[in-house]
Write a structure and sequence with these properties.
Strand content: 5-15%
Number of helices: 11
Shape: globular
Order of helices and strands: EHEHHEHHHEEEEEEHHHHH
Low-confidence stretches: none
Structural class: mainly alpha
Distance between the termini: 49 Å
């Protein structure tokens, strides 16, 4: 290399456990499908459950999404502002301002019902987003609908059956959507917390392609993939179980470590055009990842659901989406702070919950 140092070639081989990216495929997909996954939303009850410290829009009183709060915190850190919070919103990203609906009382909303099987018209409307975005040619739309409609309908039946398995005939108990969002946040926060806990960065620096003030950061939602459940198994039933230990296989895998490094490595202090110290890297990765997970626009290249589509959702669906992403954020922050602790299934699902049934339901979703 140019400075005369030695570069040692290294080859690593990994097994593929999934190819569906968390941001572009999973979270954006749930965003698009949310109106078809829920009904009977108690908007007034959910709205009243947000903590009093939660910022609201001055014009209409609606709850400010957690993505906006995380973005505000990120801006404040990037500008070096002397504030423990954000540049605009004076609130922490914790339970003092966010709502966890994974533990909400039954009745806040109901999940997919048997009668709501997608129609060809409904699928065509959904896929019109892909046409607008240039992912599907308009002339191919009918063929795509004909190919995917039977599979989608079959999956919806499986999901309805799985929901009945976990909720019973009464439909009560924790929400599958909310629990899944909390698990996503938990796994992302626990992984990043563990990475920082061993003194490592996922890969955040300014390289020659960055403009002044820009950073390359590998800590983003699309560097998590949805794990194929056929590739993963829960802990062996023959192994001693720690109190609260998860008997669920992980939802996510992690990727793109070619530019990860330890903070103790001397190279990271000299590479790039704007060296960062370890504390700055930790802050950038933690806030940057949380911001993108929550759906904020970013420069990471993570493509979420089109904003116009989300804005067209009914007001009660938009409010529920805000609460679900709050739940993800709290899962992230809790697990980041206590990254060595396993997922406590008993606390999440309640005593006596059938973990196998929840695994089937999560896979169906």
């Amino acid at each position: 290399v140019a400075d005369g140092t030695v570069s040692v070639p290294t080859c690593t081989v990994f097994a593929t456990i999934g190819d569906r990216r968390l941001g572009t495929h999973v979270l954006a997909g749930l965003d698009l499908l949310l109106p078809a996954l829920v009904e009977n939303i108690d908007a007034a009850g959910i709205d009243a459950a947000f903590p009093a410290a939660r910022p609201r829009d001055d014009a209409n009183g609606t709850v400010v999404p957690a993505a906006d709060i995380a973005c505000d915190h990120h801006i404040a850190r990037s500008l070096g502002l002397d504030t423990p919070f954000g540049a605009t919103f004076s609130c922490a990203i914790d339970r003092s301002s966010l709502l966890d609906v994974s533990t909400a009382a039954p009745g806040a909303f109901q999940e997919l019902v048997d009668a709501r099987l997608p129609t060809a018209h409904g699928l065509r409307q959904l896929l019109s987003v892909a046409v607008t975005e240039g992912d599907i040619d308009a002339t191919d739309l009918d063929a795509v609908v004909a190919r995917w409609l039977p599979l989608w309908q079959a999956e919806c039946v499986d999901l309805s059956d799985a929901l009945e398995d976990i909720h019973g005939a009464t439909g009560t108990g924790p929400s599958l959507l909310a629990v899944t969002m909390r698990r996503v946040g938990h796994e992302c926060g626990r992984f990043l917390g563990g990475l920082h806990g061993i003194g490592a960065s996922w890969g955040t620096f300014a390289d020659a392609s960055c403009l002044p003030g820009q950073l390359h950061c590998n800590a983003h939602a699309n560097n998590f993939v949805l794990a194929d459940p056929r590739q993963l198994q829960p802990p062996s039933s023959g192994a001693p179980e720690r109190k609260g230990a998860s008997r669920m296989p992980p939802l996510l895998g992690y990727r793109d470590f070619d530019m990860a490094f330890y903070f103790s490595d001397a190279e990271h202090d000299t590479e790039g055009n704007a060296p960062l110290n370890a504390a700055e890297i930790v802050s950038e990765e933690r806030l940057g990842l949380l911001e993108v997970l929550l759906g904020a626009d970013s420069s990471t290249g993570v493509r979420g659901a089109p904003r116009a589509v989300l804005d067209a959702h009914p007001p009660d669906v938009r409010l529920l989406r805000t609460a679900l992403y709050d739940t993800l954020a709290l899962g992230f922050t809790d697990a980041y702070a206590a990254w060595q602790a396993p997922l406590d299934v008993h606390a999440l699902l309640g005593p006596g919950a059938d973990a196998a049934a929840w695994n089937r339901a999560t896979e169906a979703l």
